[in-house]
Amino acid sequence: DVAFIGWELDNHAAVDAMAGRLEQARVPVRSGTKAEITERGVEHLLWFEDPSGIRSEIFHGPVMASESFVSERMRSGFHTGDQGMGHVLVNARDSAETERFYREILGFTLTDYVDTDTFHGVFLHVNSRHHSLAFAELPLEKRLHHFMLEVNSIDDVGHAFDRCQELGVPLQRTIGRHQNDRMVSFYGYTPSGFCFEVGWGGREIDDRNWEVRVYPGASDWGHRPVAPP
Description:
- By secondary structure, this protein is of the alpha/beta class.
- 20% of the residues lie in helices and 32% in strands.
- It has four helices and 14 strands.
- The protein has helices at residues 12-24, 34-40, 95-105, 154-167; strands at residues 5-8, 30-31, 44-49, 55-60, 87-91, 109-115, 120-125, 133-136, 144-150, 171-178, 184-189, 195-200, 213-215, 219-222.
- The chain has a ten-stranded mixed sheet. Strands 1-4-3-2 form a four-stranded mixed sheet.
- Strand 10 (171-178) and strand 11 (184-189) form a beta hairpin.
- The protein starts with a strand and ends in a 7-residue tail after the last strand.
């Protein structure tokens, strides 16, 4: 399951300022140990728990590799940079309290909602990526539903889809396009039982003209469920 989620801030002062906001809201904040800071490869690390008990870390100064990662199969590369690694969708104990926590205390910005008969999803952004965090109250034992990695070419979504089938990686959903972020993607299962998503073409946010919407479904097409392994 998810062990922790890291959120990068600009500098030491920004980390301390966020810690002050958390403490003012009576959220316990703890310092990372020297071993944890070394393991994460960062200069400064504080952590706290969100309303679902998920350890959340705020940090700055990550060690950067001298060369970009290159995959023989994912030749276009991954869409990261100032948008971060991708996104996660977590299982919230209380969706309303979780939304209040991330928006009012941490300062995340609401992107949109997905509302169906069985699913109320909240999507939040911290940069131009459509969402870095999403959550819903899900009938799962795991706290993590999935993490998403975005590639720079739709062909690499297809290559990854083919490779999963070649290697016998169990699929959770077929290729499809989401309604809200317009991502073309598919989902598969990790060996731990939570899912991964590989996608391309996600919408980007400009807060100067963004309008929050409620979407009636998760996908325009595809994303058909696959029988679980």
